[in-house]
Design goal:
Distance between the termini: 55 Å
Strand order of the largest sheet: 7-8-11-12-15-16-17-18
Number of helices: 19
Radius of gyration: 25 Å
Structural class: alpha/beta
Length: about 550
């Protein structure tokens, strides 16, 4: 046996997969025990339905059921929390080497397969169960941050079923997720510094890119009603410098089974407005000729003069080259499987204010026309409309200005057959959301993330004040450290909370902005300090949390679609 196998087994014990979902790239972490549980069912497999308890604590899920050839395939949950695929008969689905197989008295063959990421991907691509993740293209949807993984998916599915809308139910960003190899090795989380905020440890949900996808897809396969959902590798940041693209490719590879890729170009856009040129003279002439052509949309005519084209080349060319390279890389990884691809312009470096870099219609025309000229498979684009994390809409032009800006850019996006994406949308109020709906006709992708964790905290404060109090104290201590290190924002949050004179509350500003780190914090050996407690909460908590989240998502869908 190689050294890697016992090392991985030890890491699995340290990470406790039963109480830390969304970490491992499998839900079959003890293969011997898994096959033993399947084998104990014996002859009862002959009467197993597409969903329900088979016996001995083993259950199958109708949302996963597929008939292929002379066989049925099912996802099965085992008494120890593991999950496997079970094949009844011989279907010829290429799921690899089984954990074990037996033949019943009737001659029916029973085989079990692990739910490793690669096996799960093959099951989705080849067997094509109804509740598989998929690229949804121009279908309007919500993008739902899944920081709390298994706690939040039941509410998402309930809301989607009630409201008949689609969503990316698997969605976290490069800031929120870890690489699985780092977690298995117990390596500390990388730190970033956000100007004006302070130091941030990445991977703060505790989940890995690989584990979040596995856990989210298995949750959907367990759901009995049909779901239309995708998996968004969100805010894949392309950093400046020679290693920026290599770093982005590392995360893309970890997210190779996702269906949606959000490429965040903020760091490599040139906001200084310097005019640029294309290196190749012949291509420079082709680019200028392409972008000088007016774009006519009804009675509106957009033209870009040569100095503006030069300035937009200077601002966007590096980002468009990165988009080209990463698009090709994703296409190779996906090997013909469809995917959604987003070019993100709404984020901006901390030294540039949100209202100083609002996307103009001409700018959007330039980017989309260049994407079309290069033949890139972009399906979504996220302009900067003036939305900000942590704030309702407060751009000086008001809701009338927002509606005019979004309406114009929605028409441009539609002309280029891409969909507008609205990020940082948790804090936008119902009047703002309804303006966005009017301006887009409900044809948009609307992303949220922190709100679902904030609702978790509010529910926890009611059900387990002791755990919430520890979470609140940690957030306050985090804010105090950053304030002492010079963060004016952290100091402002603390002052506002002291003036409010409330007992520990999820409404405190310091908690709202600095609570994210507590859930996934690890010790020096790489063990989670608190995460298991968030996944050992009673059924009454989960029911209440599901009710709150499903209600909130229903209102979002009603406002937007």
């Amino acid at each position: 046996m190689s050294r890697e196998v016992p090392a991985r087994a030890e890491a699995i014990r340290r990470l406790d997969p039963l109480h830390n979902p969304g970490v491992l790239d499998t839900a079959t972490w003890d293969r011997t025990a898994a096959w033993r549980a399947v084998g104990r069912i014996g002859e009862r497999w002959a009467a197993a339905g597409d969903g329900g308890v088979v016996g001995e604590g083993v259950a199958t899920y109708g949302g996963s059921a597929v008939r292929r050839g002379a066989a049925r395939f099912l996802l099965a949950g085992l008494p120890d929390g593991q999950q496997v695929f079970v094949e009844l008969g011989r279907g010829g689905a290429p799921l690899g080497t089984p954990l074990g197989e037996l033949t019943l008295k009737s001659g029916l063959r029973v085989a079990a397969y692990p739910t490793d990421a690669a096996v799960l991907d093959r099951y989705c691509r080849v067997a094509r169960p109804p509740n598989r993740p998929r690229a949804l293209g121009a279908e309007p949807r919500l993008g739902l941050g899944s920081r709390m993984t298994t706690s939040v998916w039941p509410a998402m599915f309930e809301a989607m079923q009630r409201g008949s809308f689609a969503a990316n139910t698997i969605q976290n960003s490069v800031r929120e997720l870890n690489l699985l190899g780092d977690l298995l090795a117990g390596r500390p989380a990388p730190t970033n510094y956000a100007c004006g905020f302070g130091t941030i440890e990445t991977g703060y949900t505790g989940s890995s890119w690989e584990g979040l996808w596995v856990s989210g897809v298995l949750a959907a396969l367990q759901h009995s009603a049909p779901l239309r959902y995708g998996a968004d590798a969100d805010h894949l940041q392309i950093k400046r410098g020679a290693k920026g693209l290599d770093r982005a490719k590392k995360f893309v590879k970890a997210a190779r089974y996702y269906t949606f890729y959000t490429l965040d170009m903020a760091d490599i856009l040139d906001y200084e407005g310097r005019a640029g040129r294309v290196a190749d003279g012949r291509e420079q002439r082709a680019v200028m000729a392409c972008h000088r052509e007016p774009l006519r949309l009804g009675k509106t005519r957009y033209t870009i003069d040569e100095p503006t084209i030069g300035r937009l080349i200077g601002k966007y060319w590096d980002a468009l080259d990165a988009l080209t390279e990463l698009s090709d890389y994703i296409s190779r990884l996906k090997d013909g499987e469809a995917f959604d691809l987003e070019f993100t312009m709404d984020e901006h470096p901390p030294e540039v204010a949100a209202f100083d870099c609002l996307t103009t219609p001409e700018e959007l025309c330039f980017v989309l026309r260049e994407i079309r000229r290069r033949g890139l498979p972009v399906t979504h684009i996220a302009p900067n409309f003036g939305q900000e994390k942590g704030w309702d809409y407060r751009c000086p032009d008001g809701l009338a200005g927002l509606e005019k800006r979004v309406s114009a850019q929605a028409a441009i996006a539609e002309a280029f057959e891409v969909m507008l994406d609205v990020h940082s949308a948790d804090d936008l109020s119902r009047p703002v959301r309804r303006v966005i709906r009017r301006a887009t006709g409900g044809r948009l992708h609307y992303k949220i993330s922190p709100m679902l964790q904030s609702l978790f905290a509010a529910t926890l404060a009611d059900h387990d004040p002791r755990l919430f109090g520890q979470w609140w104290a940690d957030a306050r201590a985090y804010a105090a450290r950053e304030a002492e290190a010079g963060s004016a924002f952290a100091a402002e949050c603390l002052r506002a909370d002291e003036a409010a004179n409330r007992p520990p509350s999820p409404r405190h500003k310091a908690f709202h902005h600095f609570s994210f780190a507590f859930v996934g914090r690890r010790d020096k050996a790489g063990r989670f300090l608190h995460r298991e407690r968030f996944y050992a909460l009673p059924a009454a908590f989960l029911r209440d949390y599901t009710r709150r989240v499903a209600g909130y998502l229903g209102k979002l869908a009603e406002d937007l679609f």
